[in-house]
Amino acid sequence: MKWFSLPVALLSTVALHDASAFSVDKPQSSADVMSRRGAFAKGATAFLGVASSAMTSFPKPGYAKPVYSEAEADKKKIVEGYKGLEYLLANWEKETTVCGRFDNPYIGDGKGCERTPEKVMSYLGYKSMEHPLYRVDKTLIRMQRLTDDPDFLDILDKFVEKADETNVMAFVSSWGEANPGGGKDRVEYFIERSKNNVAESRDELAKVIKILDLKVD
């Protein structure tokens, strides 16, 4: 029996029972009729209560957010991108310094090394289509389907904003010495500013990882 037919079946039973009570051959007095109607009403009310309880006791179908085909790949991209930014921040000076590219003592630190923003842009996915954070905005837009968290869209917006700011700061720093009034100190200034934005970008990815309960090895 389907669940939605239960109340109908119960009420039908009550109605048949009451009809049989009224089908006797002898005349019915008004008092008898009223008494029987009252009994029928009480019986119907009782059965409706049972039916209502039975209906509410049936398990409701569960609801799960739909999983799309690229979900697992997107999760992996976010985790790998996050780990890359963690590594970059932990090794900032090393990753933003390049040595051995020139012999001119007036360039860089005079020992063949110079600060460069190239690695910063690479870690954020601006240099390679194969990088996990390449077009990460599209990745995060897809991943909205995996959560009902109302803050997810704000996280997406803030990450993209900070990543773009980082890229701009890194690009500006690459021309720090060539610009009028520029010099090594200007290169350092813009590289360090970009570091703050990298940290904020990393923090936004950490929120995504927490919301989606992703595992970071």
SSE diagram, text form:
Blueprint: H1 6-22, H2 30-57, H3 71-90, H4 92-95, E1 97-99, E2 113-115, H5 118-123, H6 136-143, H7 152-174, H8 184-211
Antiparallel strand pairs: 1-2
Core attributes:
2 domains; 217 residues; mainly alpha; 2 strands; 62% helix
Plain-language structure description:
- By secondary structure, this protein is mainly alpha-helical.
- It folds into two domains: 3-57; 71-211.
- The protein is 62% helix and 3% strand.
- It has helices at 6-22, 30-57, 71-90, 92-95, 118-123, 136-143, 152-174, 184-211, and strands at 97-99, 113-115.
- The protein has a two-stranded antiparallel sheet.
- Helix 1 (6-22) runs antiparallel to helix 2 and helix 3 packs across helix 6.
- It is elongated, with a radius of gyration of 36 Å.
- Uncertain residue ranges: 1-24, 54-63
Q: How would the global form be characterised?
A: elongated
Radius of gyration: 36 Å
Give the overall pLDDT as a whole number: 75
Order of helices and strands: HHHHEEHHHH
Largest sheet properties: 2 strands, antiparallel
Beta-strand share of residues: under 5%
Q: How many separate structural domains?
A: 2
Strand order of the largest sheet: 1-2
Distance between the termini: 51 Å
Summarize the structure.
The chain has two domains: 3-57; 71-211. Helices cover 62% and strands 3% of the residues.
